[in-house]
Design goal:
The structure is a single chain. The chain is α/β, with parallel strands linked by helices and 154 residues long. It has 2 domains: 3-79; 89-150, no CATH class. The chain has 7 helices and 7 strands, in the order E-H-E-H-E-H-E-H-E-H-H-E-E-H. Strands 2-1-3-4 form a 4-stranded parallel sheet, with helices on both faces. Strands 5-6-7 form a 3-stranded antiparallel sheet. Helix 3 links the parallel strand 3 and strand 4. The longest helix is centred in the last third of the chain and has 13 residues, at 138-150. The radius of gyration is 17 Å and the shape is globular. The structure holds zinc ion (ZN). Zinc ion binds at residues 94, 96-97, 99, 127, 129-130, 132. This is Mut7-C RNAse domain-containing protein. Residues 1-145 form the Mut7-C RNAse domain. InterPro entries: Mut7-C_RNAse_dom.
């Protein structure tokens, strides 16, 4: 399932990317959202009933979310059959740009991360699109906690 999320769903879009879902975000114009959804076969995620209704009339797939909270939005998506598997860096897409993420050797990122990070970690990933480097640091640990909560493991 590939998505396009409206401007009210920034946090949800970032998390969908982390869970490996190809999710476009940042398109402001409704006509443009509808066009992209049609051309690329994406499911529209929106909190806007008007946009949802327009999409339905055009025969496009749309999920109208009722909640403002991203935790509840995840629950709503589950009820529409969207599956959330444990977060795993190699399966994730870049939360910033939606690009694919691949593992890289330490050598490749040597001068691109702070020295302390380079010494402390052995596992690194890079976004093939924007070049952002990721490693399983404290931020990742925090995300795993949220991940377990979202998937009902604690
Ligand atoms: Zn990126």
């Amino acid at each position: 399932m590939r998505f396009i999320a409206d401007m009210m769903l920034g946090r949800l879009a970032r998390w969908l990317r982390l869970y490996g879902y190809d999710t476009l975000y940042g398109v402001e114009d409704d006509d443009e959202i509808l066009r992209i959804a049609r051309d690329e076969g994406r499911v529209i995620l929106t909190r806007d009933a008007t946009l949802s209704e327009r999409a339905r009339r055009l025969g496009l797939e749309v999920i109208l979310l009722g909640s403002n909270s991203f935790e509840e939005q995840i629950e709503e998506l589950k009820s529409f059959g969207v599956e959330f598997r444990e977060l795993f860096p190699a399966n994730a897409r870049c939360p910033k740009c939606n690009g694919p993420i691949k593992p890289v050797s330490k050598e490749e990122i040597r001068n691109k991360v702070p020295e302390s990070v380079y010494r402390k970690y052995d596992e690194f990933y890079v976004c093939e699109n924007c070049g952002q480097i990721y490693w399983p640091g404290r931020q990742w640990e925090e995300m795993l906690k949220i991940d377990r909560k979202l998937r009902g493991e604690q």
